[in-house]
Amino acid sequence: MHRNLSKLKFFFFTLAGIIFFASCSQSVPELTKSNYSVVFDYLEGKDLPSARLSVFMESESDIRRYNRIQITSKESGFIWDFDEISKLSSNGIQWAGNTNLIVPQNEEIPEGLYEIIYYNADEKNSVVYMTISYDTNLYSMTSEEVSEYMKSNNAISEIVIYDADGNILYFGNKTQQFSNVRGIWNTFSNADSYQEIWSTPGRFTICILPLKKVELSVEE
Fold first, then answer.
1. DSSP state of 146
2. Which of 135, 143, 154, 198 could disulfide-pair with 150, CB 3.0 to 4.6 Å?
């Protein structure tokens, strides 16, 4: 389960973001675009979800030079200061950030203004600001309730299909083809499990439903 979730995380921070301007010299981090998602991970049954914040910045600077990031909620005073930075480079585009920023138990991820500081190894830094907003009603919903709620709010329905080793066979829209287990198996005979995902436009809020096995019943 955790292996599959870690694979999912890297899909979300590479997608659409909003542009911020950072006035930088060649010696400080050059940050060009931000991306955030509030991710709700749902469990089976009546359990309520856990939530985490994912924040990434697109960088013109060499991301290998970044050694620390500090993210502060100006509304609540929460501070995340970390040196375990996830870094991605693909097709000439570089991203750096973290997919697993959490708050103390029974607290909600704050909305409002955030200050984000990226540090090089020599402690030279750049500062950007962004505003986070999301639907806090999701904290009180179970996996059995969230799909209908997200559908009624024009969210996007997607699915991730895995083989027995946890490799991703498919990630994309949940079309009619994948509306049931039989459809999944007909397309991928080596499919072992799957997860449904709901996301708002821009992927600012993401709901990941529990992992389910691809098991055909007698009726199917």
1. H
2. 198
